[in-house]
Amino acid sequence: MESFDPAISDFLSYIGSEKGLSRNTIEAYQRDLLQFCEFLKDRSSRDLGSITHDDFIKFLDSLRKKEYASSTLSRMLIALKVFFRFLKKEKWIPVDPTHLLDTPKIWQLIPEVLSIEEVEALLKAPDVESYIGSRDRAIFEVIYASGLRVSEVCSMNIYDISEDSVRVKGKGGKERIIPIAKSALASVDEYLSRFRSDLGKEGELALFLTPKGKRIDRVLVWNRIKFYAKKAGITKPISPHTLRHSFATHLLENGADLRIIQEMLGHASIATTDRYTHVSQKHLTDAFSAFHPRP
């Protein structure tokens, strides 16, 4: 879009010279705006004044489908709102098309959540008669049973798991002990007893290994969950974090206290956990619309 380049240059100059923003912040704004510009080029050739509210929604939705983090999407939204507010003020455009978009604090980009039936289908997808299948089933069970981050699962050692709980180190090295479901323990026991011949060794053995004896990493888990989601017929965008989100949402929908969920997820702020109330509220709204005799 031809009018984008001078408008972006004008904006970057403004936030640098008049607002005194740091170089890193200015570069981040520039990257976000250029990415939006590229998205519009792929769709059609239009000028700044013809951009609509719908363009922003489709842009952010395209990023979400590519599994951008919610924090990244929120940052993108902030950049777009600040930029178009500036364009309106400087008379580049007659109307600010972002004025109908809520701020990120209100407009939560809700993570994708699996239904209980989809979780069951995913957990049943691995072939537990093989080493890889048994390991993968145990990994998914542990993530869903305790709401762990994929990095926490990858770093777990055998002695971090007990008869009723798991011990993990979260962000900032903060340790927490979380209850674990019996079904997850059963999957871990099956994997260890059938396929791990190294359990007699001393030391902190990695819980989940590749066939070559290396500790698993997040890329491996990401690829495996994609593979099994396709096998299970799940069409939603899915990642290891989807199981964590589903864990929290299902707990909340079944009456768990938000503070308990916060503790289990290892969130430093209740505000981070609070987005799951939005997921639960959507669930209630959908149920109301589906079953109330006079919706």
Please provide a written account of the structure.
It contains 13 helices and two strands, in the order H-H-H-H-H-H-H-E-E-H-H-H-H-H-H. The chain is mainly alpha-helical and 295 residues long. The chain folds into two domains: 4-89, Tyrosine recombinase, N-terminal domain (DNA polymerase, domain 1, Orthogonal Bundle), CATH 1.10.150.130; 116-291, Intergrase catalytic core (hpI Integrase, Chain A, Orthogonal Bundle). The protein has a two-stranded antiparallel ribbon with strand order 1-2. The longest helix is centred in the N-terminal third of the chain and has 21 residues, at 23-43. The protein starts with a helix and ends with a helix. Mean pLDDT is 80; it is low at 104-109, 281-285 and 291-295.
